């Protein structure tokens, strides 16, 4: 009876919270209905400016429009906080006819603009070559691909139908109650994780197939680096003219980073060449399949669902699996290693306990290369190695006897030796191909291939304004405040697409900020209060390593190149997953699951409504 009462209490709290979210997200926002006729596929967008403010991509909503449909609807923002609106009818040079705009918000009379005199309220703002208003609507011809009108909305208060309002909230409460009741069955053994991963995987496949080549961050250099390893096993000669296309504007080549991803992706593309896929799609499919393997692993192994939980929290994590980049492989490898640490029946944990010489040998031949691969990731994943070392130290300290402790140390050392030997072999291959003057050759290549302003001998005046800000006299405080480093890092970790130009609305990022903050606070407080000294020590380690990583990223932006990118901090996710997998008994599963549901829903909204809708797409499949 106590369990039933506790569960009903959670149902009540979460249902009431759902009502609050409904009020905040929908009830206090305006809803727009438009009727427009266009000659080609495009976007209809509305920007808003607060009193004394200006228009911004961060204060914008819109919808995809096409010639076969005229009526559309979407939510705007709270008009009581808006001074003026900018209405972009389409994004091409040509003709369109805006027939009507209707804006409804609770507590105000509707704003209806249809035919004269309603549409006369729209003031031409930019790129309008010609327009007229008659009974059929506002006909316009744009001079370029960004025509817009301005509107100063006039709000007139109106009485709220309290009976309808109460009925509406009651229906939301009941719908939330039954939805939560149904989902509670999926919380057992985290059954929802494979289902949600499958949904994310479907979105990843759509993004990979529909998006154009090189509309994602630095994809062109990743594609070129993968090409090299289709026909090669050893690293390239740095001065080899055939790899010139792998160098970025900075004069760096991914082939010189010692990352394992490019070798594996190159051999994978060679293996799937018989399917005759488009070149870039064949390369992208490697990362897509990696995410699919994660999903399949969680279906088979229940403990793997604990490690996969962070993959449900951010659309940016899904996004990196949809195009060519090495972060996806790093996350996949971190997931596999996390499962080895967390799952009681994993190869690693059985390796530490078994007395079978054959099993020990097999485990060493599997776990050693796995650790070696971890050293062949980007350097920002090295904190994961440090965290694993702390986990192993705690495991050794927990050992009940001196003999058992010595056995653990010996077996762990054997894995480390094999891993470091493979890492050393990769370094040796570099020097075998390029000689001991490799570093001088890298500097020479940078001087040769870097764009103007990025070359080593460029003066500070010749360099772009985002390079070497510390030398320019910019303070660290200015990086945080004036350059808004924290906000850019946060947003690029939870939903920026393309070359960080496709962004969501402020309300989305604010909701994610609160959801992530509360979920993290709940997780760590639960571990500190109920997890014991060992688990609390691991939690402190995660917080310390995460802080160091963020500080290094900030310092790099200040002293070298201003790149506030959330993907540099992605390694925090697998560390948190491993921490939760180890200390899960201290954390209430129902509360954690609800937080995951909320962030997954927000992630899907961002990925679909902004990532998929606004990414440049291929015209012919």
Describe the structure.
It is a single chain. With 621 residues, the chain is an alpha+beta fold. It has a domain at 30-151: Lipoxygenase-1 (Sandwich), CATH 2.60.60. The protein is built from 21 helices and 13 strands. Strands 1, 4, 6, 7, 9 and 10 form a 6-stranded antiparallel beta sheet that branches. A hairpin with a 6-residue loop joins strand 6 (95-104) and strand 7. Helix 6 packs across helix 7, helix 7 packs parallel to helix 10 and helix 18 runs antiparallel to helix 19. The radius of gyration is 27 Å and the shape is globular. The N and C termini lie far apart (58 Å).
Helix and strand composition category? alpha+beta
Largest sheet: 6 strands, antiparallel
Q: What is the percent of helical residues?
A: 40-55%
Shape: globular
| CATH architect. name of one domain | Sandwich
Between the first and last Cα atoms, what is the distance in angstroms?
58 Å
Number of strand segments:
13
Total helices: the number is: 21
Strand residue percentage: 5-15%
Mean pLDDT: 88
Q: Spans with pLDDT under 50 lasting ≥5 residues? A: none
Question: For the record, what CATH class of one domain applies?
Answer: Mainly Beta
- Examine the coordinates and then state which fold CATH places here, giving the name of the CATH topology of one domain: Lipoxygenase-1
Radius of gyration: 27 Å
């Amino acid at each position: 009876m106590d369990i039933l009462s506790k569960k009903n209490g959670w149902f009540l709290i979460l249902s009431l919270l759902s009502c609050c979210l409904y009020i905040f997200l929908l009830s206090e926002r305006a809803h727009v209905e438009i009727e427009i006729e266009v000659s080609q596929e495009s976007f209809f967008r509305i920007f808003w400016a607060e009193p004394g403010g200006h228009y911004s991509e961060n204060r914008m909503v819109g919808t995809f429009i096409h010639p076969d449909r005229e009526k559309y609807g979407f939510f705007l923002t709270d008009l009581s906080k808006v001074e003026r609106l900018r209405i972009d009818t389409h994004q091409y040079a040509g003709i369109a006819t805006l027939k009507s705009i209707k804006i409804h918000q609770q507590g105000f009379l509707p704003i209806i603009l249809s035919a004269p005199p309603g549409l006369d309220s729209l003031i031409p703002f930019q790129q309008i070559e010609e327009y007229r208003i008659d009974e059929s609507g506002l006909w316009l011809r744009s001079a370029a691909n960004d025509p817009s009108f301005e509107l100063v909305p006039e709000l007139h208060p109106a009485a709220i139908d309290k009976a309808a309002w109460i009925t509406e909230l009651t229906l939301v409460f009941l719908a939330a109650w039954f939805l939560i009741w149904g989902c509670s069955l999926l919380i057992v053994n985290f059954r929802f994780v494979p289902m949600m991963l499958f949904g994310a995987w479907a979105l990843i496949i759509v993004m990979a197939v529909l998006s154009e080549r090189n509309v994602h961050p630095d994809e062109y250099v990743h594609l070129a680096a993968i090409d090299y390893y289709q026909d090669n096993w050893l690293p390239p000669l740095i001065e080899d003219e055939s790899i010139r296309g792998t160098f970025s504007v900075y004069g760096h080549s991914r082939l010189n980073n010692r990352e394992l991803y490019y070798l594996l992706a190159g051999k994978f593309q060679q293996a799937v060449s018989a399917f005759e896929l488009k070149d870039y799609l064949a390369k992208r499919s490697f990362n897509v399949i990696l995410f699919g393997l994660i999903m399949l692993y969680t279906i088979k192994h229940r403990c793997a669902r604990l490690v996969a939980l962070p993959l449900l929290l951010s659309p940016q994590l899904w996004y990196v699996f949809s195009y060519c980049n090495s972060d996806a492989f790093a996350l996949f490898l971190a997931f596999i290693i996390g499962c080895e640490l967390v799952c009681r029946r994993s190869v690693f944990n059985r390796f530490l306990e078994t007395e079978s010489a054959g099993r020990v040998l097999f485990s060493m031949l599997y776990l050693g290369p796995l650790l070696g691969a971890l050293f062949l990731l980007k350097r920002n994943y090295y904190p994961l190695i440090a965290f694993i070392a702390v986990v192993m130290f705690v495991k050794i300290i927990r050992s009940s006897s001196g003999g058992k402790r010595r056995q653990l140390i010996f077996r762990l050392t054997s894995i480390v030796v094999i891993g470091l030997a493979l890492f050393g072999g990769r370094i040796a291959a570099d020097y075998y191909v390029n000689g001991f003057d490799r570093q001088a050759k890298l500097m020479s290549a940078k001087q040769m291939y870097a764009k103007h302003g990025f070359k080593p001998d460029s003066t500070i005046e010749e360099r772009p304004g985002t390079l070497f800000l510390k030398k320019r006299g910019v303070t660290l405080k200015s990086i945080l405040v004036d350059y808004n480093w924290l906000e850019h890092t946060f947003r690029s970790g939870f939903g920026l697409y393309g070359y960080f130009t496709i962004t969501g609305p402020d309300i989305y990022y604010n909701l994610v900020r609160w959801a992530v903050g509360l979920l993290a606070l709940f997780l760590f407080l639960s571990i500190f209060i109920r997890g014991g000294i060992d688990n609390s020590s691991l939690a402190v380690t995660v917080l310390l390593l995460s802080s160091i990583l963020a500080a290094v990223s900030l310092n790099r932006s200040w002293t070298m190149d201003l790149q506030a990118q959330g993907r540099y901090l992605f390694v925090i996710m697998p560390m948190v997953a491993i921490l939760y997998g180890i200390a899960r008994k201290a954390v209430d599963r129902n509360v954690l699951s609800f937080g995951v549901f909320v962030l997954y829903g927000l992630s899907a909204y961002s990925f679909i409504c902004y990532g998929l809708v606004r990414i440049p797409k291929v015209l012919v499949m």
